[in-house]
């Protein structure tokens, strides 16, 4: 009896009104709030850093899910803990020592996530699963909202097998909407990130897709 969570990404929100935007998605049933941190180096786009994330914190009453698209990660872990991240996700491609990074994220009191770019195989995280609370499967090349969904069904299925009965959530990020959500939930996804579908389309309401916990967003 699997709970599917929806995590709207505020990357597609009004940047001048984050507080109101976060309240709106929570009012409409968001389970988590997904925060995309980009450094203009690991990905070709730049968003916000620890002071902004700290300012979002009081508006988030659910779970603040911070996705770091930055390299290096380690020097910033404590700053994101202080900013109030509940889940902190680092890319496996962001450095040589993801094992150490995940340990450090947990040691700082957060849940640890590891993200995989579309070109990275599931096996890249095989030996990290005891240190991770979440694996984020990118279904776009990270950097921008509103891109076309890339089918990663076989990777999601592989990860499900590798995870077995460990308490590791599979999160899908990129191009998730009412068309693609059923594909990824059937493959084994637990957490669905959705940016443009929520903020521009205004609706990813499909209770049959998201499960009983979902209300229309
Ligand atoms: C992409 C980000 C995503 C993005 C998803 O680099 O990690 O979280 O906001 O946006 P959509 O749902 O529009 O693909
Ligand atoms: Zn993201």
As laid out across the biggest beta sheet, the strand order is: 1-8-7-6-5-4-3-2
Strand-residue fraction?
15-25%
Total E-strand runs? 8
Please describe the biggest sheet, giving its number of strands, its sense, and whether it closes into a barrel. 8 strands, parallel
- Structural class call reads alpha/beta
User: What fold name stands as the CATH topology?
Assistant: TIM Barrel
Distance between the terminal alpha carbons, to the nearest Å?
Answer: 22 Å
What's the helix-strand series? Answer: EHEHEHEHEEHEHEHH
CATH class value: Alpha Beta
The rounded Rg comes to 16 Å
Overall shape: it is globular
- Fraction of residues in helices? 25-40%
CATH superfamily: Aldolase class I
Bound molecules: D-xylitol-5-phosphate, zinc ion
Number of domains: 1
Q: What's the number of helices?
A: 8
Low-confidence stretches: 203-217
> In the CATH classification, which architecture applies?
Alpha-Beta Barrel
